[in-house]
Design goal:
The protein is of the alpha+beta class and about 550 residues long. About 30% of the residues lie in helices and about 30% in strands.
Length: about 550
């Protein structure tokens, strides 16, 4: 035991009590206290308590059942109370462990420590210690940082609740739109059925009327014939009956080969197939880290060149359909190709000029920009690709993106907003600096931001849908920023053609989070990038006959 430890720690016994009897302690004894007098502010053992009660009958005495109150009544402030041993007073400092101790702490934990000092011995030099003098300022800095973080987390908590309310409203709105669409489909289908039923009913009623009319006439003629009057009327009835008999036989012969009218309902299998492929109405309804740093787990390559291709492929655009199929635009071979979930080409569609970019619209429909100032809308039915309509624009179109009924089409220097009918709404953004300033851009999943690769200046520009520039990011990883994509959860990935790299950027487009794919991954002039919702993979189109698929974790 350290010699400089206060002698009050040890009395006539090495037993350490939570509270020692005050009179016994004064007499050099070490007996455990079982009572505390509020008026005397002293502790008593059983024997001393009996003597105390004879002398001070009006004093309030607390027993062991109220031991938690003893320290407070005894004049101990909360700061003096040992955290480890209830209401024992902190009286010592173990310098070996740099730890405040009560007598119980010393007895149980620090008996072998070499330097234990009594706290009153350390107080005098406290005001001269540099760290003590500087502590108020340091504490204020820490408090400020804690308050700032508390405010930030509180704001995030509020934002999270607001987002939850917003998402619930959007989900409800989407459900109402889906219900309204199904109500519309049901009404149209019922109207078609009613029209078909009416036509079939008229068709059947005509035959019924012919049969009924002949039956009535034959009965009337037969009635005259069977009267046996053998007069002129009998002869006339006989001849007319023969005519109607021939007419009835011809009718029966015609009806015997005439098919009956019936209706059958066959639901569109595409609807059930599409709905069965959905897990939720939206994938953003979970808590996630928007700045989560992705890592590449595996890389694969798949050939997309087919026999009829006349030259090396250049994949200029990629998008994913709800069923997991992939559509790619091949600039060099002027075609759109459909890939299955295993990235095998299953169908192609030739285009009149080079396709520059492609985006998913809704269901199994996509839109592709064509160099000759056109946008073609491609529909996938089974394994068949067909152009359902075309949109002509007064500029050479390159990038394209879609969100909530709005079609955004870009030239090499500007972005225009169109309605789905093709009507121009407005020019959203324009940058007439030297070189190409707009490449294959994309709209964020919530429709608030547009991420624009500026290739000639090696930048990523982020704007809102009103055209206001929110941020500009330039980074050594960027070498001719050619394409950008966004995950379902809002993570942003930028593809650079000259540096052969893919960079992960924060949602605001202000900071680089990670260089995800580097030159070591052997990209070859990447032009297009797509995040697969189905498989959590990045699909990259390059200037060669393969696409690269990177599995993320």
């Amino acid at each position: 035991m350290a010699s400089n430890c206060s002698s009050s720690v040890y009395q006539t016994s090495d037993l350490i009590h939570d509270f020692a009897c005050s009179p016994c302690k004064d007499n050099g004894l070490n007996n455990e206290a079982h009572f505390f007098c509020v008026a005397c502010k002293k502790f008593y053992c059983n024997n001393c308590e009996q003597l105390h009660n004879k002398l001070f009958r009006t004093h309030t005495v607390l027993g062991r059942q109220n031991v938690s109150k003893w320290a407070g009544y005894a004049g101990l402030s909360p700061i003096e109370i040992c955290d480890k041993h209830g209401d024992k007073k902190l009286e010592l400092l173990c310098e070996d462990h740099d730890e405040l101790c009560c007598p119980v702490c010393v007895y149980l934990t620090h008996r072998k420590c070499q330097s234990i000092k009594h706290i009153p011995e350390l107080v005098d030099g406290l005001k001269k210690q540099t760290d003590f003098i500087e502590m108020p300022a340091d504490v204020q800095k820490i408090i400020y940082s804690l308050q700032e973080n508390t405010k930030k987390k509180t704001d995030s908590q509020k934002s999270l609740k607001d987002s939850g309310n917003k998402f619930r409203a959007e989900i409800k709105s989407l459900r109402n739109k889906v219900n309204a669409k199904f109500d519309e489909l049901e009404k149209k289908t019922n109207d078609i059925f009613q029209e078909q039923i009416h036509k079939a009913d008229d068709f059947l009623q005509d035959d019924i009327d012919k049969c009924t009319n002949l039956t009535s006439k034959l009965k009337s003629f037969l009635e005259v014939i069977q009267s046996q009057q053998y007069d002129n009327n009998s002869f006339i009835a006989y001849r007319k009956c023969m005519d109607k008999m021939r007419e009835a036989e011809n009718l029966l012969k015609h009806l015997s080969v005439k098919p009956d009218k019936s209706l059958a309902f066959h639901g569109d299998p595409m609807i059930e197939q599409f709905l069965s492929g959905l897990n939720t109405l939206e994938t953003l309804g979970e808590i996630f880290d928007e700045n989560y740093v992705y890592k590449v787990n595996n890389r694969s390559q798949y050939t997309v060149k087919i026999k009829k291709d006349k030259t090396k492929c250049l994949i200029s655009g990629i998008c994913e359909l709800p069923g997991g199929e992939i559509l790619i635009s091949d600039d060099n071979n002027q075609e759109v190709k459909l890939l299955d979930s295993q990235y095998q080409v299953t169908s192609t569609h030739d285009l009149p000029d080079a396709p520059r970019h492609i985006c998913h619209i809704a269901g199994n429909e996509a839109a592709v920009t064509i160099l000759n100032k056109e946008v073609h809308f491609i529909t996938v039915t089974g394994s068949t690709l067909s152009v359902t309509r075309k949109l002509t624009v007064p500029y050479y179109c390159l990038g394209i993106s879609y969100h909530n009924g709005n079609l955004y089409v870009g030239s090499s220097k500007a972005i225009f907003q169109h309605k789905m009918s093709g009507q121009l709404v407005k020019k959203i953004y324009e940058n007439n600096s030297v070189g190409n300033t707009v490449e294959r851009f994309t709209v964020s999943r919530d429709g608030t931001n547009i991420y624009i690769p500026d290739p000639s200046h090696h930048k990523l520009i982020t704007i809102d849908t009103s055209g206001n520039i929110l941020s500009t990011l330039q980074d050594p990883d960027f070498g001719w920023t050619t394409s950008v994509c966004v995950s379902e959860k809002g993570h942003v990935f930028v593809c650079s053609r000259m540096s052969d790299q893919v960079t992960q950027v924060d949602k605001e487009g202000k900071n680089k989070i990670n260089t995800l794919i580097t030159t070591a991954d052997r990209l070859c002039s990447p032009h297009a990038i797509c995040f697969s919702k189905k498989s959590c993979k990045l699909i990259i189109g390059e200037e060669r006959d393969d696409i690269s698929v990177f599995e993320l974790e």
